[in-house]
Amino acid sequence: MMRNGEGYPDPTASAAITNVMKENPFVYICSPYRDNPRINVMWARNYCKFAVARGKIPLAPHLYFPQFMSETTERDKAMRMNFELLKLCGELWVFGDNITEGMAAEIARARKVRYFTTKCEEVSVCK
Q1: Distance (Å, rounded) from C-alpha 6 to C-alpha 19?
Q2: Rounded distance between C-alpha atoms, residue 20 and residue 13, angstroms
Q3: Residues of 34-73 as b/e, b for ≥16 C-beta within 10 angstroms?
Q4: Higher model confidence: residue 2 or residue 102?
Q5: Choosing a second label site near 83 at 20 to 30 A (CA), which of 14, 75, 99, 106?
Q6: What is the pLDDT of residues 63-93, one digit of tens each?
Q7: What gap in Å lies between CA 91 and CA 105, rounded to an integer?
Q8: How many Å apart are CA 21 and CA 42, to the nearest integer?
């Protein structure tokens, strides 16, 4: 049982946090980036919208990190940060049938993987 700031039991907060942890709302969006960043960012935005429409909170590092990191000189650091974000997610959602090297590394570290077409039609669930 969690306790509040004064040390008293707080069953409401405890139950809420337990439910959130049980039904992790975070999903990791896994899709290509490097081969065509401009187009792939547009696709990734659509995949994030799809996740939000299903009540999920999407994490798509390939939309965020390129804003301030170099794909050519800081890729390894970005991938390590991707893996840390992936730990927060209950599922990794893969979009499309083109699995890049970076995507394969993310898939290998995921607890649960769901595969979708580029049109957001579910294909399969693994792990």
Answers
A1: 23
A2: 11
A3: eeeeeebeebbeebbebbeeeebebbbbbbebbeeeeeee
A4: 102
A5: 14
A6: 999 999 999 999 999 999 999 999 999 999 9
A7: 15
A8: 31
